[in-house]
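TASK: fixed-backbone design
INPUT:
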C-alpha cells in the first residue's frame, strides 16, 4: 500500500550517491518556492526507516530552500526489496 505524507528530510536515508544537475535544482527551487512541491518523492519504508532512491533533485532543492520536510509517496517494503535497490 502506498500513502502520501510529509517526512522530515533528516529521516530520509539516501544510500546511493547522485550527481545532481545544478540548473535543474535551481529551477526546482524557484518552482517549489512559488508553487510548492507538485510531485512527491518516492521512498521505501523498511523497518520504520525511510530510504530515498529517486527524487534527488527535488530533495536537494528542499534542502537548499531550508525546508524541514518533504512530501513523500511512501511504500512499505521488506528488507529483500531494499537489498535489491542497493545491489
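OUTPUT:
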Amino acid at each position: 500500500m502506498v500513502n502520501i505524507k510529509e517526512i522530515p528530510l533528516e529521516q530520509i536515508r539516501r544510500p546511493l550517491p547522485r550527481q545532481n544537475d545544478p540548473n535543474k535544482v535551481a529551477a526546482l527551487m524557484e518552482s517549489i518556492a512559488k508553487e510548492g512541491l507538485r510531485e512527491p518523492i518516492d521512498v521505501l519504508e523498511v523497518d520504520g526507516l525511510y530510504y530515498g532512491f529517486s527524487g534527488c533533485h527535488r530533495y536537494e532543492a528542499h534542502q537548499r530552500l531550508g525546508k524541514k520536510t518533504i512530501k513523500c509517496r511512501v511504500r512499505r517494503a521488506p528488507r529483500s526489496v531494499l537489498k535489491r535497490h542497493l545491489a
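COMMENT: The helical segments are 22-35, 56-64, 79-86.
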